[in-house]
Amino acid sequence: MLTGISAPTWLMAIAIGLAVVAIAVPLTASATMAAIGPVAVTALVGAGVPAPVAATAVLIFASTEGASPPSGAPIYVASGLAGVDPVKTFLPLLSYYCLPILGIGVLIAVGALPV
């Protein structure tokens, strides 16, 4: 699917980042990297990102695994300890954690942040 896409580097980085984050929701970072890591890195390299930078960006995308709603046991454990409805944590987790991590990975992939 990714081989047929001819897009600028920043758009490919966003697309790959969203795919990795979506896969990281139900999986651990290790399982995410095993499932999509090589394909994601290869796709970024094909878009012109140097291989070490592409690998770093994909690892950063996958790091959202433990706190990506609606999965992630830490969300439910922390909510239970705090006595908070876990559903109320979803929007803050997405806006304060997942989207910034996605942005950092994209900025690294396009060379705006150093590795």
Automatic annotation (TrEMBL):
TRAP C4-dicarboxylate transport system permease DctM subunit domain mapped to chain residues: 1-104
Keywords from the named record: Membrane, Transmembrane, Transmembrane helix
Pfam families per UniProt: DctM
Keyword Cytoplasm part of the UniProt annotation: no
InterPro entries referenced in this protein's UniProt entry, alphabetically: DctM
Chain ranges passing through the membrane: 6-27, 39-62, 94-113
Keyword Transmembrane helix belongs to the record: yes
Protein name: TRAP C4-dicarboxylate transport system permease DctM subunit domain-containing protein
